C-alpha cells in the first residue's frame, strides 16, 4: 500500500511536468543523431590538429577559434572585415560547408526542457522532477517485481489486460532508460545548485615564458601535429601580431598552450578525474557524442506520456473500486471494527453493506483492510473479519500481512469477534484462510460473538441470514440485504467440440470457444479494452460460466492460453449437473456468457527442472495446455488415468504429436476398465524410483482432477518420498506440489 502511494501520488502530481520533460527530452535526443548525420568524420589518424588548422587558415585567414563538437563536427569562429562569423567546415579540406547557426527551435525546446522557460525557479523544478522520476521508477520497479512474483519473472510475458497491461509492458521496456535519464538529470541539477561539489575546472595558467620568435605556419607546429583531430575539443588562436601570445589547446586528455614560433607544448594539465566523470554524466544524459544512446533515451522518454495516462487510469479505477468508505470513523472512536481480506474486491461489497447496516443501528464503525490491523482498538467491543481465500488456501492480497501483525495485537477485555469466510466450494481448501484466522484469534484468547460462517460463491442470501443471527447476538437491529453484481461476462461462441467417454458412462467433452465478434468494436479488438473483451489468460486459469437459470458461476480450468486463439475447456457431464449439462448440449455456433479468473497458483514454474503432471478424466485439460506451451522442451512427464483407451482417451492424437516433437518426454496412462484395471497411482508406484529421483532434483508436481484421485495420489507420493524424509506437505510448502482439484 505504502509502495503504491509512493508510486502513485508523486507520479500523479508530477505527471504534467514529467510529460513536458519527457517530450522535450525525446525531441532533443534527435540532435546528436542529426548532428552526426550532417558531419564528415575522418578516420582516426587521418587528420592531425596541425593539418586541420592549416587548411582552415587557408580558407579563413581571420580564424580565431576551432571547436570540435561532441558529434565530431568542426566549427570555425572567425573575423572577416571586422564582422564575427561561425561556419561548419569540412575537416578534410578546411572549406566552409555552411554557416553554423544553432536552430532557434531546438534552443527553445532546450530551455523548456531545462527550466520550463522559467529560468532559476524552473531549473529547480526540473531538478525536483528528476528526483520524482527516480522515486517513481524505483517504486514502479518494486511494484512490478511484486506483481510478477520475482526479479527473474520480469522478463516473462505479463498477464492482464487493458491499461494495467500496457502500463506494465511500457515500464518494462523503458525502465532502464528512464532511470538513467533521471539519475543523470538529477546529478546535473544537484551540481548546478551546489548540492554536490563542482569538479575543479581550473585550466593551466598562461605560461610564464614564451619564445616570442617569428610565428611559424600553424600547419607546421610540432605539438599540434602530434594530436589527432578525434582528440581535439578546442583550439584558440593567438591574437594576431602579438608574439607573446600562444595557442590555447583543449583535448580530451586535458588543456595546455602551444608556442606559436617553436610549436612546443608549453604547459599541459591533464583533466581531473572528477571532471571526466561530470562530462560522462552529461553525455549519458544528452547523448552528446553517443547518438545511438540519445535515440534509445528519446524512445524511452516517449513512453512517459503513455505511462502517465495509463497510470492515472489504473489509479482512478482502483480508487473507484475500493471507493472511500463513507462514515468511517477513526480507530479510537469506533465501537465496531470491520477488517477485510480481499483479492478481487468482491468481499468489499459485503463489508460496505455490513458497515452501513451497523451505522443504521447507531454503531460507529471503522473499516479497513486486514493488513492494517492496529495494535489495539481501545473503544471497540466488536471485531468483524470478512475474508476470502486465494491460491491454495492462502491469504488474499489485502490480508497477507495479517498473521504477522496479529503477533503484536492486544485484544483487551471487551473485544469479541466474528469471522465470515468467503470462498468457493469447488476448491478443496474452501475458506481455508478464514478458518485459520478464526483459530488464530481464538488462540490469542479472544472470545467470539458468533462461530465462524463460510459463504459459498458470494451468496447474498447466506450473508443476509448471517446478519440476522449477528443482530440477535449483539442485541441491535441489523438488517442486511445485499446481492452482489454478477461478474462482467463476455459472449463466447462454441467453434469446436470433441466428445469422449459415453460408452463408459463418463461423457466428457473438449469444448473450444472463441469470443463472439458481435458487438465488438475495432478498437476493443485492438486494445483488448477490459470491458467487453477477455483479458489474457494461461492454461490453468479459470473460465467462469453462467449457467442459464443458475445464480452463481461455475469455474472450469482452461486448457489453452491466449496465444492458442481459442478458449478451451474439458468438461465431464455430472449427473444432474446444471452447468455441465448445459455445456454438454451446446452445438457449434451456440453462445454462452463467460469470464476469466486468473489462477497464477497453478502453473509450472519457469526453469529447467522436470515437471510431473498427474491427472485423471477431465483433469487432463490444463495439463495438456502446459505440455502444448512447453516449447523449450523441458523434461515433462504425464501420468493420466481414464476408463477405457477406446472410449475416453482424451487428447490422444495431440499427446502423440507432443511425444514426437519432445514437448512431452514420457506418457504413462492407466485405464480402470481395461484388462489392466489400473489407476494413475499404480503407475506412479511402478515408476517410484524415477519419480523420487526427479523430485530430489527439484521436479515440480502438478495434480489436476477429482478429489478422490488427488487424495490417492498424495498417499502414494508420501510413500514414494518417505526415503527422502519428506512428505507431500513439505513439497507443497516448497512450491514443488500444486493441486487443482474439484
Ligand atoms: C485463483 C483463485 C483461487 C481461489 N482459491 C480459493 C481457495 O483456495 N479456497 C476458497 O474457498 N476459495 C477460493 N477462491 C474463491 C474466492 O475466494 C472467492 O471467489 C471470493 O469470493 C473472492 O473474493 P474477493 O474478490 O474479495 O477476493 C479462489 C478464486 C480464484 C479466482
Q: How is this structure best described in words?
A:
It is built from 21 helices and 25 strands. It has 742 residues and is of the alpha/beta class. The strands form four sheets. An eight-stranded antiparallel β-sheet has the order 4-3-2-1-5-6-7-8. Strands 9, 10, 11, 12, 13 and 14 form a six-stranded parallel β-sheet that branches. A six-stranded antiparallel β-sheet has the order 18-17-20-15-16-19. The chain folds into five domains: 2-33 and 106-189 and 288-316, no CATH class; 41-91 and 201-271, no CATH class; 323-474, Flavodoxin domain (Rossmann fold, 3-Layer(aba) Sandwich); 490-597, Translation factors (Elongation Factor Tu (Ef-tu), domain 3), CATH 2.40.30.10; 611-741, Nucleotide-binding domain of ferredoxin-NADP reductase (FNR) module (Rossmann fold), CATH 3.40.50.80. Helix 1 packs antiparallel against helix 4 (104-115). Bound molecules: flavin mononucleotide. Flavin mononucleotide (FMN) is lined by residues 342-347, 388-393, 396, 422-424, 427, 429-432, 458, 542, 597, 599.
Amino acid at each position: 500500500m505504502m509502495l503504491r502511494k509512493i508510486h502513485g501520488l508523486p507520479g500523479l502530481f508530477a505527471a504534467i511536468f514529467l510529460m513536458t520533460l519527457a517530450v522535450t527530452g525525446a525531441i532533443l535526443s534527435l540532435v546528436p543523431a542529426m548532428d552526426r548525420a550532417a558531419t564528415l568524420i575522418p578516420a582516426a589518424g587521418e587528420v592531425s590538429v596541425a593539418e586541420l588548422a592549416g587548411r582552415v587558415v587557408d580558407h579563413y585567414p581571420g580564424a580565431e577559434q576551432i571547436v570540435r563538437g561532441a558529434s565530431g563536427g568542426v566549427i570555425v569562429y572567425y573575423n572577416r572585415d571586422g564582422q564575427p562569423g561561425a561556419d561548419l567546415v569540412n575537416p578534410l579540406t578546411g572549406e566552409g560547408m555552411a554557416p553554423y547557426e544553432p536552430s532557434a527551435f531546438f534552443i527553445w525546446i532546450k530551455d523548456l526542457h531545462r527550466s520550463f522557460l522559467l529560468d532559476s525557479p524552473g531549473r529547480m523544478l526540473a531538478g525536483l522532477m528528476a528526483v520524482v522520476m527516480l522515486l517513481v521508477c524505483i517504486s514502479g520497479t518494486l511494484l512490478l517485481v511484486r506483481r510478477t512474483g520475482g526479479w527473474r519473472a520480469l522478463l516473462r510475458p505479463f498477464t492482464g489486460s487493458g491499461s494495467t497491461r500496457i502500463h506494465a509492458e511500457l515500464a518494462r521496456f523503458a525502465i532502464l532508460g528512464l532511470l538513467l535519464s533521471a539519475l543523470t538529470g538529477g546529478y546535473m541539477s544537484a551540481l548546478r545548485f551546489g548540492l554536490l561539489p563542482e569538479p575543479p575546472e581550473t585550466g593551466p595558467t598562461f605560461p610564464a615564458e614564451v619564445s616570442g620568435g617569428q610565428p611559424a605556419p600553424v600547419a607546421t607546429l610540432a605539438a599540434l601535429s602530434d594530436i589527432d583531430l578525434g582528440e581535439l575539443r578546442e583550439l584558440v588562436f593567438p591574437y594576431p601580431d602579438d608574439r607573446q601570445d600562444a595557442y590555447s589547446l583543449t583535448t580530451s586528455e586535458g588543456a595546455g598552450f602551444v608556442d606559436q614560433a617553436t610549436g612546443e607544448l608549453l604547459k599541459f594539465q591533464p583533466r581531473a578525474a572528477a571532471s571526466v566523470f561530470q562530462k560522462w554524466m552529461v553525455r549519458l544524459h544528452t547523448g552528446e557524442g553517443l547518438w545511438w544512446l540519445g535515440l534509445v533515451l528519446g524512445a524511452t522518454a516517449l513512453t512517459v506520456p503513455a505511462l502517465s495516462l495509463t497510470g492515472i487510469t489504473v489509479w482512478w479505477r482502483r480508487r473507484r473500486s475500493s471507493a472511500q468508505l463513507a462514515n468511517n470513523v477513526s480507530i479510537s472512536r469506533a465501537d465496531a471494527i470491520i477488517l477485510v481480506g480481499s483479492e478481487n474486491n468482491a468481499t468489499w461489497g459485503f463489508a460496505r453493506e455490513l458497515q452501513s447496516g451497523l451505522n443504521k443501528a447507531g454503531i460507529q464503525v471503522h473499516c479497513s483492510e486486514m493488513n492494517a490491523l492496529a495494535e489495539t482498538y481501545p473503544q471497540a467491543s466488536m471485531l468483524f473479519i470478512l475474508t476470502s481465500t486465494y491460491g491454495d488456501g492462502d491469504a488474499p492480497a489485502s490480508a497477507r500481512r495479517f498473521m504477522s501483525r496479529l503477533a503484536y495485537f492486544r485484544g483487551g477485555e471487551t473485544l469479541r469477534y466474528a469471522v465470515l469466510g468467503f470462498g468457493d466450494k469447488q476448491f478443496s481448501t474452501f475458506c481455508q484462510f478464514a478458518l485459520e484466522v478464526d483459530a488464530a484469534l481464538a488462540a490469542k484468547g479472544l472470545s467470539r460473538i458468533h462461530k465462524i460462517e463460510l459463504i459459498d460463491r458470494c451468496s447474498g442470501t447466506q450473508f443476509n441470514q448471517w446478519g440476522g443471527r449477528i443482530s440477535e447476538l449483539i442485541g441491535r437491529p441489523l438488517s442486511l440485504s445485499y446481492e452482489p453484481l454478477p461478474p462482467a461476462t463476455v459472449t463466447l461462441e462454441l467453434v469446436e467440440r470433441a466428445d469422449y467417454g459415453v460408452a463408459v458412462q463418463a461423457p466428457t467433452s473438449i469444448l473450444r470457444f472463441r469470443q463472439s465478434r458481435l458487438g465488438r468494436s475495432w478498437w476493443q479488438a485492438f486494445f483488448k479494452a477490459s470491458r467487453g473483451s477477455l483479458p489474457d489468460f494461461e492454461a490453468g486459469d479459470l473460465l467462469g460460466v453462467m449457467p442459464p437459470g443458475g445464480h452463481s458461476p461455475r469455474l472450469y480450468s482452461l486448457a489453452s492460453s491466449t496465444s492458442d486463439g481459442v478458449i478451451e475447456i474439458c468438461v465431464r457431464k455430472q449427473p444432474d449437473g446444471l452447468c455441465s449439462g448445459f455445456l454438454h448440449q451446446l452445438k457449434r455456433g451456440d453462445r454462452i456468457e463467460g469470464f476469466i479468473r486468473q489462477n497464477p497458483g497453478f502453473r509450472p514454474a519457469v526453469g529447467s527442472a522436470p515437471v510431473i503432471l498427474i491427472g485423471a478424466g477431465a483433469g487432463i485439460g490444463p495439463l495438456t495446455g502446459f505440455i502444448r506451451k512447453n516449447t523449450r522442451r523441458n523434461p515433462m512427464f504425464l501420468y493420466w488415468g481414464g476408463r477405457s483407451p477406446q472410449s475416453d482417451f482424451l487428447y490422444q492424437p495431440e499427446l502423440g504429436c507432443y511425444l514426437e516433437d519432445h514437448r512431452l518426454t514420457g506418457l504413462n496412462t492407466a485405464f480402470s476398465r481395461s484388462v489392466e484395471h489400473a489407476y494413475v497411482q499404480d503407475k506412479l508406484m511402478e515408476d517410484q524410483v524415477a519419480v523420487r529421483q526427479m523430485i530430489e532434483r527439484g521436479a515440480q508436481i502438478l495434480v489436476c482432477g477429482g478429489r478422490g484421485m488427488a487424495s490417492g495420489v498424495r498417499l502414494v507420493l508420501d510413500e514414494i518420498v518417505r526415503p527422502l524424509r519428506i512428505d507431500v506437505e513439505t513439497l507443497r510448502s516448497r512450491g514443488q506440489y500444486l493441486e487443482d482439484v474439484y
